[in-house]
Amino acid sequence: MNTEDHRDQLIDMLLREVVGGETPPDVRERVLGAAAGLSAQPALPRRSSPAGRRGMMPRPAARSRAPIYAVAALFTLLAVATGMMYFRGINHSRTPIVTRVSGSEVRVLGALRPGEYVSTGIQENAVLNYPDGTMVELAVETTLRVPARSWNDRSKMLELVTGRIDAEVMPQTPDHPMVLSAGDASAEVIGTTFSFERDEEGTRLEVTEGAVRFIPSAGGAALLVNSGLFAEAGKSGVHSGAINVPPRKGIIRFTLMNADSDEPLREAPLADGETLSLASLPTRNINIRADYEGGAPTAVRIQITRDDGRETGIRPFASDDQTKPPFFAAGDYWAEGRPNDCREWTPQPGRYRISADASYDGGRGKPLEMEFHITE
Amino acid sequence: MTDQTLAEILDAHQTELFRYLKYLGANHEVAEDLVQEVFLRAFKAASTPDLDNPKVRRSWLRRIAHNLFMDYCRRNARSPISFDSTAANQAETFWQDEFLPHDEGLGCMEALELCLRDLPERSRGMIDSFYARRSSRDELAHDFGISPDGVKIALRRIRQALGECIEQRLSQS
User: Fold this and answer.
1) pLDDT tens figures, A95-139
2) Measured between CA atoms, how close is B145 to chain A, in angstroms?
3) How far is CA A250 from CA A256, A269, A290, A301, A366, in A?
4) Do B43 and A320 count as a contact with CB atoms less than 8 A apart?
5) In a 10 Å sphere around its CB, with 0-12 CB exposed, 13-18 middle and 19+ buried, how is residue A31 labelled?
6) What is the DSSP string of B23-58?
7) B133 touches chain A (CB under 8 A)
8) What are the residue ranges of helices labelled H in chain B?
9) What is the DSSP letter of A350?
10) What is the spatial distance between Cα B166 and Cα B172, in angstroms, rounded to a whole number?
């Protein structure tokens, strides 16, 4: 907040009093009455030392300086531990855990190592979870295998031997997508909700949300299967089309706002990976609104980060839960009184990631996350 | 703190604290509640600064008010405007340097009243409509023949002009 903002708030406060008649109330009697009630209670413990009355803290005892060799040893240990954690982290992030089975026990719960299978029979299903929240659900009569791969490959990999899986994949890094392979095709997933099915006729992918790259094994171009579409490859060739998608609940898009007028800058929502040139916009004061579908969430948390870890220029508390719509990434300009007054934000050039999570009384809605690039 | 001291600092500072909280962004009701809470916190405080020094006393009370407002914003999760320590210090500095020196703020208010008289009729009408009659932006847009997009900018520009006018008047006096 710069001097102009402070001045504007000051003038606004004065106008509310001088023109709006919002004169300061007299709370004298109420406070004195409440204080009298407090005085009737046992006295609160008070500091009695002169130092305490002056608000001074006792001087801490002198600390001895740590020997240099101890510091060096600590750094060595830290380096070793960091390396071990790195390798452990790779293995941890790509290892699915069987967390639920139904019907007769198909496999003991726990981690699935490369080369291991998990199978479900008739009236059985199972759920795999990854540490990042990615979930894969096996339908009945499904067999899934974890293929072997190099020690430093972070990608999540699964091979669908037969049957059908439904998956909700948390955002993956583009260079390490989740890879699902089947006989006639494979799918590369960055983060989405979809189902993947393999039978004697072929392999079918249905995408409920996000986008998945569908790669037919027989060759030919890969298909980018977007939300609401399917693709299949098999004996009859490669096909794609629309599926019926159930209505979703949660954050569905980010709208770019003109913070000078509090109106959307355009109709089209912010697109994942989009480059925004500040010079091309009618204002440099922008904000981003998280729009929802399926009823107002009870709370929404929006976070914006920069790829290089530098400051975004957004108030730290902007990432706190917001409970009343509209939900602005950079917050409202006024804490009270004018809830639609979105706060101005002039982002510095760079790459940004924005995410929004919606909560409902009955649980969480669909989160939304994307990247965008700001240029002058 | 004695009851008598509490009464004295209430008389001396409640108006300023109310304005300070409104300046930070609190609405009328919230500011009123928080002002009461500030004095009760001060009364219950285990240690107090030098209450005979008005500057120290005033600064201490404002700090309590600021912390209470920040807590309020967090609890209500409405206000990403909430201040971090940097913003708090900026707000405090601005308040101390730009508002209080002028007869504890009364100078600013008197200057504002004079500046309002000098406003062009149309600007004055917008200010009255927004602050006194509490018209919505759409109503303002309709009444003044501008787009709803332009209302926020127009009001901000009028406040900016008033700020410059106040500054000029205060520097002359």
Assistant:
1) 887 777 665 544 556 788 788 888 887 767 788 888 777 888 888
2) 16
3) 18, 15, 10, 12, 5
4) no
5) buried
6) HHT--HHHHHHHHHHHHHHHHH-SS---TT-HHHHH
7) no
8) 3-24, 28-44, 54-76, 85-94, 106-118, 121-127, 137-144, 148-172
9) E
10) 10
CA distance B76 to chain A (A): 8
Greatest CA separation found in chain B? 58
Quote the tokens at residue A140: 């009945």
Q: Is the alpha carbon torsion for B9, B11, B14, B15 positive or negative?
A: negative
**What three-state secondary structure class fits A51?**
helix
**Helix A3-18 vs helix B85-94: angle between axes, to the nearest 10 degrees?**
60
For tokens 């405080």, the residue is B45
The pLDDT tens digits for B104-158 are 788 888 889 999 998 899 999 999 999 999 888 888 888 988 877 678 888 888 9
Q: Choose the closest CB to B81 out of A15, A18, A343.
A: A343
Choose the closest CB to A334 out of B25, B83, B91: B25
| Rg over CA atoms, chain B | 19
The rounded distance, in Å, linking the Cα atoms of A75 and A81 is 10
Asked whether the beta carbons of B131 and A33 are under 8 A apart, the reply is: no
Residues belonging to chain B: 173
